[in-house]
Specification:
single chain; about 180 residues; alpha+beta; Jelly Rolls; six-stranded antiparallel sheet; three-stranded antiparallel sheet; 3 helices; 11 strands; about 35% strand
């Protein structure tokens, strides 16, 4: 599967709100990164695996604020569309459509607000990282925040491979 050479990249940074640790690393959104095909979900799984983000799963996005304190996560929208809130209750709501890929840094809350009935999301994590699932909860904030700060950067960008826009952005702060 050939990837577009001119990726449309957006970044978002969410601050620690005392309930959700979020991350100083920006969330990176690739608009329209997955070309239309008869097997977009399979293409997405193969893309992630080839770029060091193996073991993809197919599902949706939870309808409650949650985050992973032990792993970064990539979500590819293979079919349908979803409206998601990122960064916790005071975060930002975005519309994701088939073909979009979003890389969520460890600690950044995400929640599905609504979606089409045909939504298919492909998710994965960098090789060697095992996700936990943390609820937005002030009582667990300090412990989670400490774990978030120790999650290593992945070896490669799940979309473009190598360092790519993701690691360039994460090493510099933002595009």
């Amino acid at each position: 599967m050939a990837m577009p050479t001119d990726l449309d990249v957006e970044t978002f940074v969410f601050g620690d709100d005392g309930v959700v640790p979020n991350n100083t690393l920006p969330l990176v959104l690739y608009r329209g990164a997955l070309p239309e095909s008869s097997d977009r979900a399979g293409d997405c799984e193969r893309l992630f695996a080839a770029n060091g983000w193996p073991g993809a799963w197919r599902n949706g996005i939870y309808g409650h604020h949650h985050y992973h304190s032990t792993a970064h996560e990539v979500l590819g929208i293979a079919r349908g569309h979803a409206r998601i809130t990122l960064g916790g209750e005071q975060g930002q709501t975005l519309e994701l459509r088939a073909g979009d890929i979003v890389v969520v840094p460890a600690g950044v809350a995400h929640k599905r607000e609504s979606s089409s009935n045909d939504l298919v999301v492909i998710g994965s994590y960098p090789r060697g990282q095992k996700p936990d699932i943390c609820a937005a909860d002030a009582r667990r904030h300090a412990t989670s925040a400490a774990r978030v700060g120790s999650v290593p950067l992945p070896d490669a960008d799940p979309v473009s491979g190598q360092a790519g826009p993701l690691l360039d952005c994460w090493k510099r702060g933002a595009l």
